[in-house]
Amino acid sequence: MDSWLKCYILKSIKMKKHMYKNIKVFFATLLLIVAIPSCTNLDEKIYSDLSGDNFYKNKVEILQGALRPFTHMQAWMAPTGQNGYYYHAELSADQLAWPQKGKHGYDGGDHFRQHYHTWTSDEGRMRDAWSLIWTGVGYINAAIADMEKVDYKEFMTEEEMTAIISELYVLRAFHYMKIMELWGNTPIVTEVGEGPNPPTRPKKDLFEFAKTELETHVPKLLPYSKELVGRVSQTAGYAMLAELYLNAEYFVGVPMWDECIKACDKIMSGEAGGLGAGNKPELADNLSDSFSNTNQSAKESLFQFAFSKKGGFTFGWDGFFCGYSNTSEIHNVDYSGWNAFVVIPTAFDNYPDNDLRKKEWFMFGPQYKYGTDEPILGTEEYNGKPLEYVNYIRRESERKSPDEVLRSTMADGEENSGARFDKYKSGPLTDDNYRENHYLLYRLTEIYYNKAEALMRKNGGKATQEAVDLINICRQRAFSDEDWEEAKYTTETLTMDELLNERGREFIFEGKRRTDLIRFGKFTTASWWDHEPSNDPNREIYPIPHTQIGANPNLKQNPGY
Amino acid sequence: MKKNTMKKRLRDSYKKNNRKIVLLLSLCFLFQFSFASTSSSINITENDEVTQDAFTVKGVVKDNKGEALPGVSIIIKGTTTGTITGIDGDYTLNVPNKNSTLVFSYMGFQTQEVPVNGQTSININLTEDIRVFDELVVVGYGTMKKREVTSSVETITSKDFKEGGSRNPLDLIQGKVAGLNMTRTQGSNPNAGVDIQLRGVSSLTGNRSPLIVIDGVPGGSLDLLQQDDVESISVLKDGSAAAIYGTRANAGVILITTKKGKSGKAEFNYSSYLRHEVVNDRPDIMSASDYRKLIAEGVINKDQDFGANTDLFNELLNKGNLSHYHNFSMTGGTEATTYRASLFYSDLKGVVKQNGREQYGGRVHIQQKGLDDHLTMSVNLSTNFNKANMLGGSTGDFSQAIQRNPTAPLKNEDGTFFETHAFDNYNPMSRLANRISKRDQQTTLGDLRADLKIIDGLSLSAIAAFQRDTYNDRYFRSINDWDQRPGSQYQGMAYASKNNYLKKDKSFEATANYRKMFAEEHVITALLGYSYQYQTREEFSVNNNGFTTDGFLDWNLGAGSAIQNDKLPRPGMGSNKWESTLVGFFGRINYSFADRYFLQFILRREGSSKFGKNHKWGNFPAASAGWTISEERFMQNVDFVKDLKLRVGYGVTGNEGISPYQSMHTLSTGGVYPQDGVYYQTYGASRNANPDLKWEQKREFNAGLDFSILNHRITGSFDFFVRNTKDLLYEYNAQQPSYIHSRIWANVGTLRSTGFEFQLSGVAIEKENFKWTIDLVGSTLNNKLTKLSSDLFKSNWLSFYGLPSPGNLGDAIRLEEGGKIGNFYGKRFAGFTDDGEWLFYKKDGSKVRAGETSEEDLAVIGNGVPKFQGSINQRFEYKGFDLSLMFRTKLGFDILNLKDLYYANKKWLPNNMLKQAVKKYNHINDDPQYSDYYIEKGNFIKLDNMTLGYTFDFDIPMISHLRLYATVSNLFTISSYSGKNPEVQDTGFEAGIDKRDYYPGTTSWTVGLNVTF
Fold first, then answer.
1. Min distance A184 CA to chain B CA atoms (Å)
2. Is B460 on the interface with A (CB under 8 A)?
3. Angle at the Cα of A136 (from A132 to A137), degrees rounded to 5?
4. pTM of the prediction?
5. Residue B915 CB contacts under 8 Å (≥ 6 apart), including other chains
6. How is residue A292 annotated by DSSP?
């Protein structure tokens, strides 16, 4: 019976009994009623959430708890429209920009400041990125703490549990790598709520933490296989290590080329498993397989985010990369976006015309409805007129005379400015695997590039034949047989600058450009399109969001902010 | 001295008979607010002379309802000779001569002098004369005479309600209570609520609307009240008044008393109104010909002329709208049993197509006395069934009405709808034709109440109540809807959804009352109580798509092929449930001495399930005092002051208005991820649990003065308050690391508001057939955020109202520590370049283009919260006619004109624009930017309500009362604001924004009828 009713009935009984008795008796009764605990019970019953007590009862539930950080990571790491790692890694670099397009896209000047490197500690999107990534760390810390309490022996072996916990440790180290890249000096926290005001640690502590955790736990991971698609396996772990070692010179001033090469070899040798033949990773045969809607089993994949429209969660790159709804007919798809990211003209010009990647990975020129020659029409500056993506960013629609010189800045975009993203392809609505695409964080090509770069740097910045071979075997996919002879590198032509350019061409849209520019010393010193160099090395790391500085007195702002 | 003796004698006389008190009290309920036009002082001189002209006068004294009045004192003027009427109001008196004058006096009635003029039979009817201080005021858990009230309480009875057909019972008191602010951001939309705020913003995230208590049941739904069922509305404004409701009283408490049955003759009442709404704030949108003129001038491309002349704004309106309301009630009873029952029906139409609300329901109250009148039990049942059509009146439709190309037809030649493809465009007429959005709601409240007199002075009351609020929403988009078209994700098939909601409130409240008078002049009243409230809420929703036919609408959800076809958006479903419990113990002691000095103490101790383990309970004390200065000896000779009372109070109240479970660690869903290729749900920490979460507390000081001067011709009150709400509940920025999520519910920060309120009523003219009364109500407000940090959680400012796309120009409003509520925060306009591009001031005073400004250049550029609000209500009565005029004003605030910012800018082309784009704003040749350029003064005064009524005066036995009236509301507004409607939302934190999306404002015309037989 409901406790309120109980109270009421009790009270009524007492009332009758004592109706004409004296006041003292009445008050005593009232006090008695009041003292009945059910009348003062304030416990909360939970209906629509789980609590630690009724969960983690079998292996599926253990994994459901362990995989929460993965779905969260999809938000901050993949280009899914969030203000996370990807947004900052690309818009501060020389390939992608989000210019204002007429009345659209000014967005409080956020994207301007990324492009011009004039951000402050008060950027809303930076607060979001900080918060998203640290929430990831929090989920992992909470999951590790929960797992360590679970009595799993009845339904899992110790090896299975160790692999799962190692996976969480490695994933956390990856979070710290990315935190170190963006903010340099931050706290290191391995338990929820410890502190709660943890102090700032210098960048080298973060580096050491990530390195030690990876070196300790990567060998305990399982080799990559079809069963583990989407998870952190040895290929993922060694790819992380390869990246960490490659950037060690920049991060802590200690070159680790040999360690990098060794990590690359672990992957290339197939020791760490893989999705290709014989459980080894293999380079993709062409430019499209790794990004297609059947790339779940892409043979060069080392670490990928599993997305599936059928499974219930789609890889949505539409917000950043797609135009308004008028453009969804280009690919006959049901999604559209914010007409946001465009390719910076200088980056597009970086591809020679015979580079097949220039066709395969971009939308450029006049656009037609899928499978027809019926033009797509614009809705803004080119309202009602055929939409044609152009390799410049200026107010061409306002041109008054043919010889007028038009300004080309972040403020001067139009709806058709710049070439557009077409690297990942969802397929048309009619395709059986429509939008089943996974997002690849590491693919074997990058390991080839990393090893080549380590070899070259070890060699005083000069290409070795081994390095040239590693790059050429990847690059060959981008050229026709006729063009290849002329396109392939030699130890003479593969300079460090050329390597950076080629990295850009190969990994465009893959969220790696900021890190590459920094490692090559170009981030604060080079100019591109509307960007002038700041020549301020402090800009290589972002400021700690001022709200966090305000919230935690033990945080120290980065120099220069 | 003599006056006091007289009073004492009268008091003794009516003390003799309990029934008389009951009668008097019930009369008090029905009092009429009129002031004596003649003095009623009695001069008694020693003159016992009896002459031979003496003869006997007989008669009966009744009240003006025709009921006999026993105990009326009758004195021969100029003598001490007199008598008192008997049980049937009869009297016999020897008068000295035929020129004598009889003085009839009776407590609570106007004293009346009647010259004998030789008559031997004088029957008279006395008129009630309730002195201001004897009015009954409804307070928490009881009533008090105004004289005894020591805190800030305002009671408005049905006599003084605003006329003209209310949409919401609180409309009845709009403009009548100083400090109570009500805004309707959605004009006459019958499905939109009203924003209610008392004395400014009192909480960041908790409840900011007053607690509604209906007949003693806290948390009652306003849907259950129809205007003709409401007897009185009492507003507990300050902390010392509201503390008895402790926990949910931070924003004030509104006590609503419904009409009850009366013993005696059965009475039937019917009231009704008809209302028609006319839009009064149509924006100056370019017509098709204005638009074509711009095409001819080359401003707009030729290909933008689609050949039609469309006035979409006009198309959206339901010009023939007519709302009607009917309420029928019957009441009656015997000494022991009384009842009142009413039934109502209303069909309210918005000014917009597909926007209406049909309601019916009723209310029954039965009261039975028993056990020698020791026990009174009553049952109250009320219910409201309503069907709402929510499809029309979407605020986005009216921004389409502005921005859609006026040369574009609404339909193609084949009858399908024509869609324009500019930014953010849709055809609202297509939506109105191809969608369904309806709500079917039922709200029921039942309560059982028992009052038991134990011994003289001690009584017990208990009330158990159950309120059930449930609705079922249906939503459907046809295969012909643009969003469902082939090529959309729905691939040409229809979509349908249903959503169920069920809220159950159970409450039990028990009180013991004790009253004791000792040594003649000391009175103590004590109240002790227990309160239990348990609430659950359940929701269930489901949607499906892939319907190849419109044949089912939403009545066969399983037929949608999205269940099998995984290329369609997945069907969705969801359900959730939560509960919360409040337990309170409370007590109140009132002490009065010599009817002049009053003290009141309140303590409520309350526990809420929502808070952390160690902080579930909170204490809410209050103390207040009153001093009736006019009763003091030194005031006896101050003739022009009739009543004067000083009140001072301090009270603590609380707020627990956050979602449950915030102090607990739980796991919730987090998206799907594969385990060996199978996608399973994942689970992670739901929140940063804060086990220290506790009550928000408001501490309020209030000082007030009540007065009545010039023979009660002018009455009124002044109040001054200071309120500080501390331990504000807010989802603060958590330290990340080490917390998991970016936000944590915590108690940090203080809000402060101060204000001055006045309420004045006066009789300007009173003649035999003509009366002119004036009521003035006004309040000032200064509302600040004084603190936003604690040792553990820090925050500098909060921001509100993100300006919409395109441009996403940032948050318009910033609430800074130490700053006022409602501050606009943005760029400072510095002029234009020669090319018409914006220039703004940098912090250092230099002028730059928008792209070169940064966060540090922003400043406070205005404030959207009115500093002063007031109203003047005038009422003229001439014979049966009455005319009332209510003007309302809000002064000292700014409005951000978003309609101009976005729509009066040529960059909005090829969308349609406001005419001002090529006039006032023609020089702008740049994309929209947010700055003080668009901030204007919002001062306004409007004729809020004008009612002309006629009450028939005839002697038809069947009909005892018949009144007809006509009302016009919102007839005109005088304002300094250049936009169309300066009455924008000014409650909460998003004050003073004239939004892009809106529901049109209206002038409404109403005729009504009220008949009693």
1. 15
2. yes
3. 120
4. 0.81
5. B284, B285, B286, B290
6. S
